[in-house]
Design a protein that fits this description.
By secondary structure, the protein is of the alpha+beta class. About 60% of the residues lie in helices and about 10% in strands. Helix 1 crosses helix 2 (about 80-90), helix 1 (about 5-65) runs antiparallel to helix 6 and helix 6 packs parallel to helix 7. The structure holds heme C (HEC).
Length: about 290
């Protein structure tokens, strides 16, 4: 194995090991950052839903409360306001999604699907649980969901969700009495669930990862080329030349020119020593001839 091959092999092993370690760590960090970003994003969407709810209770409902006896206005219902706000958002960003998934809902479109029911049951089983974060495949790609329990804390909720007899007549005209009743004080009846797409931040993370790996490989390629050129001119060529001269001298060819080296590095020092040794050998050979 030549010196160049040995050095290149050692270099390649070190580079590949380094690439594997830094690649693994950076990939994990980038993916983790992407997920954190999505969770922050989902948290903000949840806050925005809560803001829409609070706005409806505090500002919209008081304005319309007198009209409710003539005609029920869903616009005064916080859950309706939050869901509608998101439906508007979904017109431009269909991969974002909000639902007040409920086991026994007033509005059938709020009925929990199978996986949402699983989440609600987890909240019902463990009253301490305040948040569930998970991932799911959706038709628009992988998605992260953030879920929080809906617990009936305010007895006023039961006016419309307790027994049908207490609920406003106008509401029953619109929604009937079959669903959305029988909720209990302190019961977890459903879950607010926000879904945020994961594909875009993951793509960004993968792009950053690819750029990192490509720049690592490019840096190595440059180091590799420069080192090989340097190796060839500084070490391999002079050593080969010396070996050739030594070969010729040892075969009795004393006419070969001396090894020329002007530098001050170790190879030049070796060259000077080599020349001195050659002269001594030549002298010895001449003395032997006499
Ligand atoms: C004035 C009657 C009324 C009151 C009071 C009321 N709601 Fe509702 N609620 C409704 C109606 C009507 C809907 C269905 C709205 C729609 O069409 O999306 C609804 C929907 C919901 C939903 C979505 C699931 C479903 O049933 O469709 C949740 C969750 C909910 N309400 C929770 C509450 C909570 C918690 C309170 C108390 C803070 C409360 N509601 C008070 C009338 C009421």
């Amino acid at each position: 194995m030549t010196l160049t091959t040995k050095i290149n092999l050692a270099l390649a092993v070190v580079f590949l090991a380094g690439l594997a370690i830094t690649g693994y760590i950076s990939h994990a960090i980038l993916q983790d950052n992407a997920k954190r970003e999505v969770i922050t994003h989902a948290g903000m969407m949840m806050e925005s839903a809560l803001a829409a709810r609070a706005y409806t209770i505090n500002e919209i409902k008081p304005l319309l409360v007198d009209k409710l006896s003539e005609k029920f206005l869903p616009q005064t219902v916080p859950s309706y306001a939050a869901t509608q706000e998101f439906n508007r958002l979904r017109q431009t960003r269909p991969e974002y999604w909000y639902k007040e998934a409920t086991l026994n809902p007033t509005n059938p479109s709020d009925r929990s699907t199978e996986w949402e029911t699983d989440i609600i049951q987890q909240f019902r089983k463990n009253g301490e649980l305040t948040e569930i974060i998970g991932e799911r495949e959706t038709p628009t790609g992988p998605s992260l969901y953030l879920a929080r329990p809906i617990r009936i804390k305010n007895p006023e909720c039961l006016v419309c969700h307790g027994v049908p007899g207490d609920a406003p007549e106008t509401m029953k005209v619109l929604y009937g009495t079959a669903n959305g009743f029988g909720w209990q004080q302190n019961e977890i009846v459903g879950s607010q669930i926000v879904s945020v797409p994961l594909s875009v931040p993951f793509e960004k993370a993968n792009y950053a990862f690819r750029a990192f790996i490509i720049s690592q490989v490019a840096t190595f390629a440059i180091i590799f080329i420069v080192l090989n050129i340097a190796l060839r001119f500084i070490i391999i060529r002079p050593v080969r030349k010396m070996a050739l001269i030594a070969d010729q001298v040892s075969n009795g060819d004393l006419a070969v020119p001396e090894f020329r080296s002007d530098g001050k590095d170790e190879i030049s020092q070796l060259g000077h020593s080599f020349n001195r040794m050659r002269r001594s050998v030549e002298k010895a050979m001449e003395m032997m001839k006499q």
